[in-house]
Amino acid sequence: MIFAPEQIATTVLVGAGLLHWWFLGLRHTWVRFASGAALFAVLTAAVVYTIGSPLQPKFATAMSGERLWQQVIITAWWLLAGRAAVEVTRISVLMRRIAGEGRLFSDLLSGIIYLIVTLTIVKTVFSFPIGGLLATSGIIAIVLGLALQNTLADVFAGIAVGIERPYAIGDQVWFEGPIEGEIVQINWRSVQIRTMSNDIATIPNSVVAKSRFINRNVPSMRRSDSVQVPCTRTHPPEYVIALIQQAILLSPNVLEKPPASVALVRVGKRLNHYEISFSVANSSLLWQTKSMLLREILRQFSSSGSSYHLRGHHPELAEPEGERVLDIALLEPLAQEKRDELEGHLVCRSLQAGDTLFAQGDTDASLFVIRTGVLEVSHQEKHDTIVIGRIGPGDYIGEIGMLTGAAHPGTVKALTPSLVYELRQEFVAPLIKENPELLHAFEASARRGQARIDRGVAANIGMKTVPPAQLLDRMRAFFAHVL
């Protein structure tokens, strides 16, 4: 058989189409689609010119090499047409930005397309009657359906869920059971979830279709929750609520909008129960925020003491008794009697909401220990005020200024009524004169205090002025007049 030039060209185009299918299968989707569409269009024109319409091809009447060539060409055309249709379904999935469930739907369509192409080739190209084949395949399908009914239930449930798309890969979900975590894979048979304990839970699609579940990402990733806190009935509810609200201010993960709320929800003979409702940005922050909030509430209760001596003062300004103010990390090198001596030199400052403890640039060389209340630390840069964070009971700030005389790099204002104790440098200087080695101990203690997580805000504002490498040199220079 001698091939005409148009037949050779058609054969080359078919070979190019098959090679394109093979070698560009893993390339960029849009490049593969555009180049494949152009090649298929040229191939279609060549097939129509040489053989006729692929739907009703004009094969040679006698069995010959030419007829076999025509059948091969039309078969290849149908396969490439099926491939093009599959690419269209995948492009539509890509444009809709669907993840795992879209792949499930596109795989199903791909299977249907290839089945139709196969039956068309059998009937159109080889003139084989497909009625008996369909009847036989129906019997086989019934047998397979009975044998694989559980698997098929998962498959069809997956198709239904994929069409509805109630969740996607990356969503935080809760399934009845309960199982909660992030969806990492969606396939024909099941959904895989990475739980909070970093385990992979596999749930069959048939179970998913029958289960109740909550998608934490819809309508937004924001998550709301509540915790209950007991408190003895002898404590005034207004005071307890005020302390809890201060604890909320010290929990940075609690969203300001919607605002958190505190309510007295149960009154008992010995205990009253208070419920705190709050919101976080996403589910991954929930447990951490609950823990932080409860720690801050405990710190507020501890700093307020076991009893409340109002004596005509506002409850917010009540001073706890029986606790040492200077039991802080910075002064750990000092013996207890020396710390007790410094306690006698403390100056108690009462601040109302909005009052300034110290302003950026001040050089008062004092250490400030917060006993009650919440204060906000901010830094002014040109025309912008940057809020660094908040500090509360047990925190201390200004140690770098007391030890080195450096100006305060930020401003500290009271957000709530607060009690703050001030220790001036002039009372620490005599201790340095008696024992100059205390400078090394103070430096080490200051570094430890800066490394503590709960002192991150206060320590960072100090280190903006004096880098750690220069801390000891600045301390020596500042105390040079007493050494």
Would you kindly provide a written description of the structure presented here, covering whatever features stand out?
The structure is a single chain. Helices cover 46% and strands 20% of the residues. With 483 residues, the chain is of the alpha+beta class. It has a five-stranded antiparallel sheet. Strands 9-16-11-14 form a four-stranded antiparallel sheet. The chain has a four-stranded antiparallel sheet with strand order 10-15-12-13, with helices on one face. α1 packs antiparallel against α2. The N and C termini lie far apart (111 Å). About 4% of the residues have low confidence.
Topology:
Elements: H1 5-23, H2 29-50, H3 65-95, H4 100-125, H5 131-147, H6 149-164, E1 172-175, E2 179-186, E3 190-195, E4 200-204, H7 205-210, E5 213-215, E6 223-232, H8 237-249, E7 261-267, E8 271-280, H9 286-303, H10 336-343, E9 347-351, E10 356-358, E11 366-372, E12 375-381, E13 384-391, E14 396-397, H11 399-404, E15 411-414, E16 418-424, H12 425-434, H13 438-451, H14 456-463, H15 471-478
Antiparallel strand pairs: 1-2, 1-5, 2-3, 3-4, 6-8, 7-8, 9-16, 10-15, 11-14, 11-16, 12-13, 12-15
